[in-house]
């Protein structure tokens, strides 16, 4: 089995619609794909309805978190999307995205960049607006060569010249909320130092003690030494090691299925989840997403 547990669609900051994403996942030879848009479940229905035969959809989200002044992302899988407490927190994060993005646009203009809110809003479309949309505008304007080049201290990285904060969950609270909604939590790209500051390993240990299920090991932003270190931490702290593409369509060079999760690890994730079932086959109504 080929299993990719971290992808994004136009429901947040990917360039593929949810339907295009699942079609692309099947074309890439995947057996399982997780839709993990940022702080939203808005792509679930379209992805499930378009699901090709032979491909299983895992519903999820990538939750924006911060601890000790460092931002981190928490992948949440197979939680009940209607659970009110977690739904309320996702809504708070999404509601803060627009004023945050407007603030960053303003900072860029103060730096002499001829960016406009209308340009960013057009790029985001119906998605949950975020830094990748602003980064795309910077590429379009010729300010940087790639989306990744925008995530530096000069521009949009945490603490960068044009950075602005937003409402973010405490990761320990995120673990609690996802568990209460029947879901499974995996810390996304925890040692991706090229993105900026990362949490110390002691925080990963504390999160494991608080109920974190896994850690994303195989990721494009982890080199071989980092992956080896994370596998050691996973074994030491009793965490499930996963692998994923973190696919964003044309916003990144990584392709669907470039990094995958071991079938036994996937089986353990689905065994632990009680909030929703994976959706198999040729699509189905949204009610099938509930356990």
Lay out the secondary structure.
Blueprint: E1 3-7, H1 18-27, E2 32-35, H2 44-49, E3 56-67, E4 70-77, H3 84-110, H4 117-124, H5 131-140, H6 147-150, H7 171-180, E5 184-187, H8 201-209, E6 214-218, H9 224-237, E7 240-243, H10 263-272
Parallel strand pairs: 1-2, 2-3, 5-6, 6-7
Antiparallel strand pairs: 3-4, 4-5
Helix pairs in contact: 4-5
Secondary-structure-derived class: alpha/beta
Number of strand elements: 7
Q: Rg, please?
A: 18 Å
Overall mean pLDDT stands at 94
| Beta-strand residue fraction | 5-15%
What characterizes the major β-sheet?
A: 7 strands, mixed
Which key features would you list for this structure?
alpha/beta, 7-stranded mixed β-sheet, 10 helices, 14% strand, globular, disordered C terminus
């Amino acid at each position: 089995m080929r299993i990719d547990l971290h992808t994004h669609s136009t429901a947040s900051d990917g360039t593929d619609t949810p339907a295009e994403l699942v079609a692309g996942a099947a074309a890439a030879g995947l057996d399982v794909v997780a839709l993990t848009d940022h702080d939203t479940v808005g792509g679930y229905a379209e992805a499930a309805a378009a699901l090709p035969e032979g491909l299983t959809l895992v519903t999820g989200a990538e939750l924006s978190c911060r601890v000790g002044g460092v931002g981190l992302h928490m992948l949440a899988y197979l939680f009940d999307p209607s659970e009110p407490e977690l739904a309320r927190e996702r809504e708070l994060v999404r509601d803060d995205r627009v004023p945050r993005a407007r603030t960053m646009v303003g900072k860029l203009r103060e730096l002499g960049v001829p960016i406009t809110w209308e340009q960013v809003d057009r790029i985001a479309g119906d998605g949950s607006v975020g830094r990748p949309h602003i980064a795309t505008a910077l590429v379009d304007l010729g300010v940087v060569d790639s989306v990744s080049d925008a995530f530096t201290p000069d521009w949009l990285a945490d603490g960068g010249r044009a950075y602005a904060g937003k409402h973010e969950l405490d990761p320990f609270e995120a673990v609690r909320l996802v568990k209460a909604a029947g879901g499974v939590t995996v810390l996304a790209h925890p040692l991706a130092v090229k993105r900026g500051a990362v949490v110390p390993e002691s925080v990963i240990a504390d999160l494991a003690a608080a109920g974190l299920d896994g850690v994303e090991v195989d990721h494009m932003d982890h080199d071989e030494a980092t992956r080896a270190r994370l596998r050691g931490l996973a074994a030491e702290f009793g965490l499930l090691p996963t692998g994923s593409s973190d696919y964003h369509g044309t916003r990144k060079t990584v392709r669907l299925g470039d990094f995958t999760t071991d079938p036994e690890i996937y089986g353990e994730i689905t065994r632990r989840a009680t909030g929703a079932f994976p959706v198999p086959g040729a699509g189905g109504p949204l009610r099938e997403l509930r356990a």
